Every structure is written in C-alpha cells, then in structure tokens.
Amino acid sequence: MAQPLAITAADTEFCEATPEQRELAWKLNGAAWARPMSIETYVAQEFHLSEQELTKDGRCKYWVLHLTGYPRQVIASCETTRKKVLISENGVSREGYGYGIASVYTNPDYRRQGMAATLLRRVQEAMDRDSDLSVLYSDIGRQYYSNLGWHVVPRDELTLTYIAPASTSDNETPTLQHSQPGSIRYLRLEDLRTLCEVDELHLSARFDRIPADGARHVAFLPSFAQISWQVARAEFVAGKLLDGTPENVGAITSNGRAWIYWSHDWKRKKLKILKVVTVLESTQQQRIYDIRVLVEAALVEATTWGLGTVLLWNPDEETAMGCKAVGDVHPHDIDVVIDENVDHSISSLRWAGGKHKNTVWEDNYYYCWC
C-alpha cells in the first residue's frame, strides 16, 4: 500500500460541496461502498436519494475538505440531513432540529493524518448554527467519534432468522406462510403519509406527558419524508439488481390498530423494520398479538424476496414478546435473538456546542438511520 501524501489541516480548505465535488466524493467512496453495483450506478443512486422529499431543496448538505487551490482534489467528505425533532426537558416539550450525519469518508491518499476529524470539526460548527443536536451511526467502533464529541447511545437489536427446511435444494427459494393472513394487509407507499401523520401526533402527545426527570429526551419525527427516503433507497437498488421491485413497504392489522414500516436491505440480506406503531387504545395482550401478526408479515415479505433475517432496533418489552410469539408459532422455522449492538451502526449523539447532557433518545429505531 502506498504511503499517504503528507499534509496538515493548514493545507486544506473546507466548503459545502459544489455539484462537481459532490460527484467526485461519491466516486471516491463508491470504490468502497458501491458493490455489488457499479460505481456509475452507485453515483446515480446517491443523486436519486439527494432528490427525495427528505433531502431536496438544501435539506441535505454535502461537505468536502479539499487541497488548497485544488478544489477537485477531495480529501474527505460527508453529508448532513436536517430533520425535525421533539425535545422534552424539565417537563416542557418543544420542536427542534437535529442533523443526521452519513457517508464520512477520507480519500485513501490522505488517510491517518486527522483529515476526517478536521472535516467533522468544521461540520460541527456549521450544524451548531441551526440545530439542537446531531447523530451518526459508526461502523468503526465507539472511540473515534466519541473523541469528537458524539456520545454512544447503547442500543439492542432483535433478529428473527428464517431456518430453511433441510429438504430445500439449492435451486429452491423457501418462503414462509402467514399463520393468519386475514389479520393483516400489506401497505403501499401511498398508504404511508396519513399513517406517518398519525404517528407524529401520537409521539408529540407522548412528549407532552414526559415528566421532569433530570434528563433531556429527544426523538426524531417519524415523518413520511424520512420513511419514504428509506423506501426510495431500497427501491432503487432493487431496480438495478433484481428482476422486480417490491410493492409492500409495511403492513397494518386488519382492525387498523397497529402497523409497521420496513425497508429491504439487499446487500446485507435483511428486512429492516423501520418502526412498529401501536397508537390506538388497546390492551397489552392485544398489542402483543398485533405485533406478532405484523412481524410475521415482515418475515413472509423477507422470505418472498430471499432475505433471511428480519431486524428490529431497540424492541420494548411488548415488541420483544410479540416477536417471541412469532417464534412460538413457527418453532422449527424461526430463530429469535436479542443482543446489544456493539460493532455496527453504533448510535452516537452530540448536542450543539458539545454540551454533555443526561440524554434519553426515545424511539431510536431504524427509521432514524441515514
């Protein structure tokens, strides 16, 4: 491996990326992240995602550190998406803004010289001017971003893995059958906007009831813009790698009492539950049943498309019980595991100005990821 070109922060310039610099950054990080797509297709994906409701019209900003005097020589890059959040402190709730940070990447020619840290400190200054906080999801361990002010927020993960029958041949695609197909109906993208609005109202009412407990509570709004961005990502990849594109983006109980949203992760062969919603009045037993039939629907969707695992972030007690009930219904087909996440997409949060607070991140579910 060639030695990195020796530079210091004094040799660099920081700026919001021009369209040309943005594409150059995508081509650089695409060398690491594009597979199994080509870099050209990956760049098209990133452009497509930049034009979604969540990200268009300047809601997502792209940042670069480049060599002084050479704007095409991109050294490091990242993107930040500004989103609405709810904050509750001392028994008072309010709306605010938080940034999701993604695609932090350093050109291999300039690594191990603090260039990403230089970039991120400048990005912090920019974000702090118009937001309350920022979050990111680390795939390089806990320490690096913690040293820059993003504190790890522990998170559990629950997986339901389909165990194919021993008789299945290599040419067969095993699928799961729902035990009570009449208990749910599948959701299309056009169904989600109204459901997201109901979910936002429910979350806002919940924040109004949070008592003063010495902590600052925060949650990203589960908006249609956020959910549809996740769907758009999965649909784009499916359109490039598969013969068809899934129409189902979630499921709702036949009584309309609960629903879930999901996203297909083709690269990691997982169906990721973006959020489980139980907003209408019901008993605990009813909620557990609703979660069971919805998660079972997710498993059917996963096996239909050759995805072996369904993933949920931070399941509460009722969600965990509902998932375990799926395992009880399919005792020989489904393996249910709950573990703390320690090595990928590590949730990390920083308050504007670097002020450390006793923080409770409410609803830290996969819909927040970017």
UniProtKB/TrEMBL annotation:
PANTHER family, per database record: LYSINE ACETYLTRANSFERASE, N-ACETYLTRANSFERASE DOMAIN-CONTAINING PROTEIN
Q: Name one Pfam family in it.
A: GNAT_LYC1-like
Concerning InterPro entries, the annotation shows: Acyl_CoA_acyltransferase, GNAT_LYC1-like, LAT
Q: Which domain of life is it from?
A: Eukaryota
**Species assigned in the record:** Neurospora crassa (strain ATCC 24698 / 74-OR23-1A / CBS 708.71 / DSM 1257 / FGSC 987)
Name by which UniProt lists this protein: LYC1 C-terminal domain-containing protein
Tell me where in this chain the LYC1 C-terminal domain is found. Answer: 177-370
